[in-house]
Amino acid sequence: MALINESSNRTFVKIVNGKFAQTVTKDTEGAKHRVTKQGKDVWELYFDTLCGNFSDVRLDEPPEKFPQIGKQWAFVLEDGDDIYELKLPQRSIPAYGLLTRLMNVNYDFPVKIKVYRITGDDDVTRDYCVIHQEGEKIEPFFTKEVPNGLPVLKQIVVNGEKAWDHTNRLKFFKKVVDEKILPKIRNANPIAETKAVKPVEVEEEVPPPTIEDVPDYDEKDDLPF
After folding, report:
1. What is the sign, positive or negative, of the torsion defined by CA atoms of 117, 120, 124, 126?
2. What are the tens digits of pLDDT across the range 137-189?
3. Which of 3, 50, 145, 185 is 20 to 30 Å from the Cα of 132, by its Cα?
4. What is the Cα–Cα distance from 60 to 15, expressed in whole angstroms?
């Protein structure tokens, strides 16, 4: 039997305006003030890159207090004793950018996740994530040209408007993570499963809206679809 003092070393990260953002207190050195769409004052630290070894990838249900958030992917990285949990809306472009690359990651080694802001031909600016490892960019395993089983998005009509149906694609990624990715992570880091924790429901702002209609982008734009 041992007596220990446990303290939280888990940092929750999200994406805000093309940067990784960590919510901190007002008096934190380097903190930047921002007013959310809900009119809430928050202070954050911003970063371009998130580094570490993957220790978990999971799909979280929305908190009971904030059902409007919807399901979110949690990408968990460890760097020594520090744990970083990147939360992304299930259907967001940054989440898709990571999910398409997970099959090509070597989980024995650390990665760097970089976030970018990209303006498409439609003049819409979107956030986008790419994984780097051993000095090289990890290319997508699932692409438009070589889908490797990735379901094609289908257009449907909702309330008289055309929209993209993501249902099959979301189920596909969940199955890939559960059956392919997590076993690789557990094999590379056997104690990772014991470190996994149930996400804490904290009162935080609703994240930026999910991109509702994500078309199949051209590969020349280096976008996942």
Report:
1. negative
2. 999 999 989 999 999 988 898 888 888 899 999 999 999 999 999 999 999 98
3. 145
4. 17
